[in-house]
Amino acid sequence: MRTVISTAFISLDGVVEAPGGEPGYRNSGWTFKDVEFLPEAFGIKGEEQKAATAMLMGRTSYEAFSPVWPDMEDFADYKVMPKYVVSTTLTGDDLVSNWGETTILRSLDEVAALKETEGGPIIVHGSASLNRALSDAGLIDRYHLIVFPLLLGAGKRLFSMTDKDTQKLKLVEHEAYANGLQKNVFDVLR
User: Judging by beta carbons within 10 Å of its beta carbon (0-12, 13-18, 19+), is residue 49 exposed, middle or buried?
Assistant: First the structure.
C-alpha cells in the first residue's frame, strides 16, 4: 500500500488559499508578503520531491500548476513523475503535453485503488477540496505542514468541516524557524 502525503503552506487559522499569489483572493501571496525568507524553513519541499513517486492533485491545482511547473527548475523532479488528477470534468485534451504521464481519476474509489498499488509515496500539493475529501474518506496517511504565523480569516481551508469522529494525528517531526514559520509533520493514526 502506498502512502498519501498532504503537503501544504497553511496559516495558523487553517487557510491554504492562494499562497503563491494566485488571483482572486484578498490575501493572495501571503507566503512571501511580510515573511522573511529562510531557505531552511522550506527544506522539506526538496525532501518531498526526492521521496515522492507520484503526484496527486485536483483539477483546480492541476490547472494552476501545469502551465508553470513543467518549466521550473525548482520542480524538475516532478516533471518526470507520474501525475494523477482527480476530476469529473477534465478530459485528455485538457492535459498539457510537457509534464510527463498524467492520468485522470474520476472518483475517490479510484484514488483508493491507486493507493493499493505498488510504489512509493504519493504527494498531494494544493488541492484544498481534494484534501478535505481525501481526509473524510480516510485516504491521507501523513501531513507535511509549513505553518505561517498569520491569521487570514476567510479562505479555502485544508481541513474538513464535516461532522465526523475524531481523527488522531501523531507529531513525528517538527521545527520552528527564526521567521516564525513552523514545520509540523503528522502521521494519521488509524
Answer: middle
For residues 123, 49, 105, 112, the Cα torsion angle rounded to the nearest 10 degrees is: -40
Query: Structure pTM?
Result: 0.96
Cell 498539457 identifies what position?
96
pLDDT beyond 90 at 34: no
Q: Dig out the grid coordinates for 15 from the structure.
A: 487557510
- 123-179: per-residue pLDDT in tens? 999 999 999 999 999 999 999 999 999 999 999 999 999 999 999 999 999 999 999
Nearest-CA neighbor of 12 among 153, 188, 125? 153
Give exposure, 98-137, as e/b (b: 16+ Cβ within 10 Å). Answer: ebeebebbeebeebeebbeeeeeebbbbbbbbbbbbbbbe
